[in-house]
Amino acid sequence: MKPPVRLAAALLCGAVLLSVVSCSDPASVGTGLGPDSLSGGDPEIRNIVPSSLDTARVAPLTGFAGSPLGQDRSWRFLAGQVDDPLAGPIEADGYIDFFGSENRPSTFQDLPASAFNVELRLRQSYLHGDTTSTLAVQLYDLDGNAEMARAPADTTFASETAPVRSETYSVAPTDTLVALSLPDAWVEEHIATLKDSARFDDGSFDGFRLTTTSGDAVVGYEHGTATLRMTSESDTVDFQVEKTFTHVERGQPPALAEDRLLLQDGVGVGLSMAWTDGGIDSLADANVLLNRAQISVPVDTSLLRPPEGSDFVRPLPSGYRLLATRAETEGTPSCAALQLFQLPQRPGQCIFPTVPQWVPVAARPVADRTFPVFDRWFVDRAPLSRFRMEITARASSSPSGRETALRGIPSTTPVVIRTDAPSKEALPRAILTVTPL
Amino acid sequence: MAFLSSRAGTLSWFFVALALLLGSGSAHAQSNGDGSVYSRFGLGSLQDFSSSQSAAMGRGGFALRSLNYTPTANPALWSDQVFTRLSGGAYYQNIQSTSGEGQSSELAAGTLEALQFSFPIYSRSLGVTLSFQPYTQYNYRTRRSGSLPVQVTPDDVADADYDVNFRGGGGLHRFRGGLGYEITDALRVGASLDVLFGIIENQRNTDFGQAPLRNIRLKDATRLSGVGGTLGAHLSLADVLSSGDNLSIGGAVSLPATLTGDRVLTLTESQSVAPDTLSVGGQSSIDGSVSLPLRSRFGVAYQPNSRWTFTADGVFEPWSSFSSTFSQRGPLSRFPVGGEQTLTDRWRVSLGSEVLPAGSDQFSGYLANVAYRLGAYTEQLYVQPDGRTDVQMYAVTAGFSLPTSIPGTRIDLNLEAGTRGTTDGTLVRDNFYRVGLHVNFGERWFQERRLR
User: Is B375 exposed, middle or buried (0-12, 13-18, 19+ CB in 10 A)?
Assistant: First the structure.
């Protein structure tokens, strides 16, 4: 039978009529119509300042044991003392220990101690202080094996009471290479170990402590290139670094204005923040929906730069780290569930990856990692109770997100945070973009 | 057998196409394109489809008898059935909407107009009709744009552009089933049971496009359902003004009905995530009801001969008596939007005419057997968005009814153009046109064939 083409075509056309709906070009016509005009839906930015802002000290891990090659080259240890007009007196003692060596020239065995020159060779990579000053450095033998790896900066390791040399070494802070020659008596005392031992961990040599008796600078030395060089007339052996550590202490800092807080790397003075006054809770209860969440901790960089023409060098911050403590309530999600890193040494501590482009003017975590935290806060309750911003010096200017969560390399960099200002934008705050219902 | 084969082939084509049409219809049942912003008020734009013949004659014809159509508006007309009839139709609508500030938008929608199934129990005496069609359409759409400064780096403040899209979706549907009975040659009556149901949705989406901010999709949905009834009567008088003419008077009243339901507020973060139901006032949903007023229709049809038909019709619905028990809670907007004071009485007056050049001569040429229709109507909408200004609609209609090789089956092409509203104050003017296509399929089913 010939199909009823006209009928079928009509039905198909009818179906097409239902489908042709893609021609709309809506504008704002009619939004103001009626008493319940179409309104709302416009996002707003709310800056919520923490209810508590204070400093809190958590000594950073300044010890390191690792290969002198590869990525560990950026690690450093510090030694010196500086009286920073902004941050006050800071002292740093450096600790260093070396691997032994199985490869020594055969000629070494027959030579007396007096035939050798042994020197500690260090390459400068950091300077904080007066570039014109001179550091009076003293070296001490460590008394026993020091567990430097991942040791916090407030750790001290036992050393001999007398320096290896009664006279101090004079070191210019700007010297890129420092060679501290060890006295003959020290060489004589350690010649057996230096000539024979494949390893130095037999108690005969446990490394040095570098400290300063005068000067106005803290200098950083590369971990990876530090060597203990033993030379004879014909041959040279470099003992490679095994581990380094920096002990940092500070004196009484000068008084800052009441609306400012001083943070200090090295000694681990960071910023502690909490939003416990219900500011965020009340916003969450106010029928608003969260579009974006950000935390910003602006830094008052105007105080960090020394006066022009000054010989004083104060390194600018090269990185920040933002941590938070998980709330101690049942059902609080893990750091991983909040898309944050977890700090192995401090259970219950989550770390936000930060945006390196904001350094040094502010510490800002990556926005999409901040959002789940505040989103949960809005929907349920705060998953994190206390936040901490700390200075973490970085060797790289463009670290990855994961790298921004790692500990920094040792530094004594200070930072000033404002706690009161006419504009909230100068203050630590949560920046919440919300849409009212 | 040839007859059965022919019928089977016809039916298979019909049902395949109908399934496609229904598929499109169901896909758009909740969001069938975009329509007038006036649909945001009340329960949405009232749909008044009775038959494709009526749609082309000013949307009236409440007293118009026809063997080719089963007008759903008046159950009394359902007694006039000879064929088992299946009909369906859809239309495409384009609206140019203009505000007083000179802004304009273009909105388009494709909508299923009706599906009807009817059959005679006793030819021309007792007939049954079942129909499914939109009762209201809630499909407004408008948009507002803005930008938000977002500092992405210390030296770079970027504007995050966003759109706030306001959109209505869904509407009420009506399933109607009933009987029409011819008491005498002149008098017919009918009654139907009307089941009303549907979801009316208001969406407000804050979309940031590519900017790294979460989009907010907020939707409040009101689910309603209820049962009503319609009574109709029809009086047919022959030889009134001249020999062979016919004058019909008909009317129908849909009784007041109460629809009950609930409202929920949902939040959707992204298209791939199921929406969250938001608590409003401590409750996940709000129960309530609305009372619909009666709908009264009255019409006159005059057929001086078999070629010409003229109709005049009126509609009145006292929507000022509408009431709603849905109370406003928290962020939910009122229901209906603007409150009951934005509703007013609705009326419509229409005129229509039809000419069938062939008259009763079925052996005339094809074009002579095409029915040509023309109509016009004016209507006062039942919504008064600003609470004081009546919104008027004026439209002209036209249509062609094309015969097919299947007796009792016609394909109707309808056109409609009109204007609605004004640009005074916050009101808007809609200039619209519609193109509708309907298929009215009729055959003798379930009836014993007799040799005469």
Answer: buried
